[in-house]
Amino acid sequence: MNSRDEFLKKFRGDALGKIDRQSSLEEYFQNTTLRPILNLQNDLILSAFQIYIVQNKIPFEIYSTDKKNTVIENAILKDVKFQNLLKGFAIGLFTADEFTLYSSASSSLNKRIRSMLIERLQSQLQLI
Predict the structure, then answer these.
(1) Quick one: the chain helix, strand, coil %, rounded to 5?
(2) Which residue range is the domain that position 80 belongs to?
(3) Mean of pLDDT values over 86-90
(4) Domain count along the chain
């Protein structure tokens, strides 16, 4: 393992979430790689979404909680450019081995990333 990979694993910290022998490869990857990275990148994710709502002139602050949740979901699921930006925040912190694994299962892992991003932003509405 090279020094970049060692640094990234140490910098991100331990796995978050339950991992056991029955965990699927995607679930294992989610808890050992994706959750720690998204936790680390949380402030950047919040900032990116705040910039997104300003740039797209979305009157987010006057919306109801349900409407805010819908805006978050639509931003991540329907705006491919924004979705790719947020995925890039995570992918850029993968080790070489993690990137290889991600590449082999990118479709299912991208769904997990999108879902986790939506949940993360929706659970922090008071900070947006």
Answers:
(1) 75, 0, 25
(2) 24-127
(3) 96
(4) 1
